[in-house]
Amino acid sequence: MTVVAAVARSTRVRPLTAAELLADAVARAGLWDLLAERAHGEPGGLAVLLTPGMSAYGDPATAVSAALVEHLVDLLHEHGYRDVTVGAARCGPDTWLAGPGLPETCRRLGYGGRTPQGHGYRLVDLSEEVEPADFPDSAVLHGSGMARGWLEAGFRINIAKNSTHPEFGYALCLANLFGVLPQDDKHHHYRARRDGAEVIVDLLRRYPPDFHLVDAVVSSHGCAGSQVGRPLRTGTVIAAPDGVLADLVGALLMGVDPVSSPLNARVLGDCGLPDAYRIDGDLTPYQGWRNPPRPLVEAVRRLAPDGRAHRLFSVAAWHVAPGTAEVTDPALARLSRLLTALIRAADANPAAAAALCALLGATASASATVRAWRTGNAKDGLRRRDVALAVDPDAYTHADYDRIADLLRPLETVVDALPADAWQMRWQHVGHSILFGCERTVNAPYPEFVRRVDVSRSISYMTDYLGGRVHVVSRDGRGRPTRQIERNLYLAQPNYLAYYGGPPIDVCKLESVEYGERRQRICWRTVRSPNGSAAYDDGSVTFLPADGGGRTRIVIRVRQRFTLPLTWQVIRPDTRPKLRDPLVQDSYQRFFTRTLDNFEAQYEGRPFRIGRPWEELDDLEAAELPTQRLTEAARMLRTLAAQAASQALTVPTPPGRLGPDGFWHVTPGDLPVRTPLLEEFRASLRPAVAGFWQGLREAAARDRRSRHTP
Fold first, then answer.
1. What are the helix (H) ranges across 18-166?
2. What is this structure's pTM?
3. 193 neighbors 305 (Cβ within 8 angstroms)
4. Where is pLDDT greater, at 410 or 695?
5. 3-281, what's its fold?
6. Is the peptide bond before 494 cis (omega within 30 degrees of 0)?
7. Is the per-residue pLDDT at 335 higher than 50?
8. What is the three-class DSSP state of 315?
9. CATH 3.40.1210.10: does it fit domain 393-604?
10. Residue pLDDT, tens place only, 132-153
């Protein structure tokens, strides 16, 4: 069936009201046919859920028009669909600046529960009544819930505001879906902890909307139209059963490349457009429309979503009108007013735009430097990642897994024939890839070692492992995985490449696992690298008995080819063997020595994973912004200054006592060792200093344990 994207536009020759634009667009896009097919002849029994984008603080310029939504409610009632609910779809930073709440936000935007024609509708908050949702184990949302209103709706209509976005470039139907997810802290759960595009892909595959609308009657454009309202009358309504198609049409009307948004590009690549579609309407770009400057978009994208700088910008860029929110962080409120004023000025003032881009660019560079330093020197402070599988398990047959060992056998033969270096490691350049092999015999009885160390989890034991996802395809009679797909993330290798913009290594692999009495083995073949960081990362890990089973031999053989950062591509180390070979030898020796250490740590039950997991208890920590620390520091300084002034105005009393001879008699106990002000300051700093030294001692102890070899 051909999917139609309808574009209804008001022109000088044919002026139309918002209600007329809406009625025209939904009719041409086939809404009534879709509803009738779903209702099975009983429209009154079909529960219809509308999810219009709502501003966090009730700003109509950045939210879908309530009047347009109520026009749609009237149209639904006219066609017999009387069970209509409006669900909140908020994407605002309510965690840091307390918003007015759903009832007050709806009131300010004009939602009263009854249309001007007298048709009633319910208002629900999609962050309440959350129930388990059966996302598959290959999904990044596996284990997450959804609101009952979304799960039980018979027909879902997603309504987005036509607006620009400082990071995506534009934010339409797909971006609006973040608001229907249940967690209040959208940034923490759906941008930092998980990749936002993967979240939307999972939602579209499992619980998708049935119809999409874009409210472009009055749009919001400029540097950050989705956050700082800049109205422009564009007189348009876009309607389509497919959200990717609706966003494509909306982007063309803005005059931008639809795949310029990383969110839309990823969803388009994973979900694609309908097999057959057509666009019914005029795609002439909006007159007077202003998109975000490209340098601004690039600067914001350089702020890693799981970093504090990105979180701070995401919060501060929201315009909070005076009196519309209870400010819990005064420093953040001041920063928000300053940043939104600069964004407004940047739309018309090139100097302000240059200043804004320079400020964000400098912040992004500083943030990237800090992240690169932590990659090599403070790995325990990094966050692990929750990711989707990123490949379709049904695209591969059992034969694809079973032939992996045969594909690797010639490479392993070459590796075994290479001479070993001083660390008993073998490596050789072949083409643009590297063949590598290493082994170690550990003082662990073979039966006990294979019981404690699961060979099917060998990938996760490797050093600098940030996270991943495993989908088991088949198991043996004892329930052990024999075929599986795994996605793995590692820090940039070598770690110093992070200073040159080297991305994390992100690879998806088919894996075959064998369990024998005298050998256990896992072998893998790379089938995809979502971020393009690897062309090859194939190999195997084998556990063998040694010394009659009294010890265990670990053998690793790999073929790898990773993508170098642009700077190193210009240097072309492959043409300079004297530079290349020592670097390769050192990086492989470090990586696989630590990897073999990790296998021993797993056997001994010692922790070895880098990074910190995303736990529910971390929500409070994630909600903390640098401005809160600044506010606390300013409050303490004001208190200390007030105490100092009070002490300065107080006439000091000399220590000791006045004797009958007219002299002051002072004993050592009468002299204050420190002033009360200094003592209070020391007391306030003591926990931080003690915590620093305690953490340093624990880190040194971990280093000593990691170097110990039984």
1. 18-28, 31-39, 66-78, 102-109, 148-152
2. 0.85
3. no
4. 410
5. Rossmann fold (3.40.50)
6. yes
7. yes
8. helix
9. no
10. 999 999 999 998 999 999 999 9
